[in-house]
Amino acid sequence: MAVRRRRRQGSEPLWLDDEAGRLVRPYTVSNGRTRPTAHFDLLTMVMATGKRPVTCQGPDHMQVLGLCGGPVSVAEVAAHIRLPAVVTKVLLADLVDCGALTARAPVQDPHGPSPHTDRALLEAVLHGLRQRL
Predict the structure, then answer these.
(1) Residues 58-97, buried b or exposed e (16+ Cβ, 10 A)?
(2) How many C-beta atoms surround the C-beta of residue 49 within 10 A?
(3) Residue 17 clears pLDDT 60, i.e. is over it
(4) Are 38 and 97 in contact (CB under 8 A)?
(5) Which of 7, 25, 77, 86 is packed most tightly, with the most Cβ within 10 A?
């Protein structure tokens, strides 16, 4: 089993195993927390405020913040950092709590889904997300 060290742009090195993947377990990234302090839907949009966080300065927090220069969904952030959505939500909530991110809930159409919604595409995305969790 070969262990290698790899750097991502603007982040601390990650310990990876060729077969097992990331060696730092997700619950370690969130300090054992499984519930975010704010509610996030997978479609919630987050964006950096430009405020430098004082309390949220772990490498994973900084990596998440680096992805949020423009509006990005929770699902996209989770996919980029390759962590389960629940862990991503905890990190995002930390950044919202310290003022480094803003979050906007997805807009709900009172008349139901758009007639242009591609159900097959949405189901494929959901299937892919479930495989990552």
Answers:
(1) bebbbbbbebbeeebbbbbbbbebebbbbbbbbbbbbbbe
(2) 15
(3) no
(4) yes
(5) 77
